Amino acid sequence: MSGAEPAKGRIGVQAMMLAGEIAEHGVTATLGRVVDTGYRTAEISQVPMTRANVEAFAAARDGLGFSYAAISAALTSGGSNDGIDTAFDKIVDDARTLGVDLVRIGMLPPSGLRSLAAFEEVADRAEEAAHRFAEHGITLCYHNHHVEFIRAGAGTLLDVMVERAPSVGLELDAFWIARGGRDPERTITASAGRVRLVHLKDYRIAWPSAAALDAQEAGDAAAWSAELEGLVQFTEVGEGALDWRAIIAAADAAGVQHLLVEQDRLYGRDVWEALALSRRNLVDLGFGDRF
């Protein structure tokens, strides 16, 4: 007898992409356009969680049939997301209001990269925070960038977080895993049981500019070197080098609940064009039932 098929993670939007639209047009109008683009769930990040915005997000659940994968928090206050150190009760209240049981740390404090000991302190603080959230039925998750693949002894900083903070879930980002020199599919598979969310963010190598080629031919080695280093770019899902069928299959097998489309830079493309293109490509790959 075969085992049950793994649950399928739902595809949504990482609302960092929508922060400018929300600032200009408001939550309600922006989420209405998100729905028109074909998405009905989002992870909220880098959007001010004012009372008005939280109420508008909550109203969209009934008015638009919208839902939320997670909200964001920082270990320390002062950034674009509420800080766990000063706004813990508010973060819990916002999560309850929006019906989410996942809170994610989008980026470690930069001071945590001063040394291995500093990163271990970050992991210890995350573990402590995870215990506090667990008392309210909320799982705290940690989102990686490429810096978590800095070597640390026999492993990486991400290994340190996994081992030192066992109560902290993971939010793995396909682009940043690849940028860190690892394989997204294998990294997700190795994190089965811990990874709750995955960012669908593609990775491309761009063509060099004509200006840089001209500079190289003119003997400007510095300009050419800088151009080569900058050819790694974000791109719409399905427009880059990553194997999305394999990555999403690994996410399903690992028990991932949410798959969030995200693109840090658009290189002149409109955010709505970018989201529509990512969705169209994912539908073409056979994931149309995930939206």
Structure described in brief:
This protein is α/β, with parallel strands linked by helices and 291 residues long. Helix content is 45%, strand content 18%.
Tell me about this structure.
With about 290 residues, this protein is α/β, with parallel strands linked by helices. The chain has 2 domains: about 10-200 and about 235-290, Alpha-Beta Barrel (TIM Barrel); about 205-235, no CATH class. The protein has 12 helices and 12 strands. Strands 1-2-3-4-5-8-9-12 form an 8-stranded parallel beta barrel, surrounded by 4 helices. Strand 3, helix 4 and strand 4 (about 100-105) form a beta-alpha-beta unit. Helix 2 runs parallel beside helix 3 (about 50-65) and helix 8 (about 185-190) packs parallel to helix 11. The two termini are about 30 Å apart. The relative contact order is 0.14. The model has no long low-confidence stretch (mean pLDDT about 95).
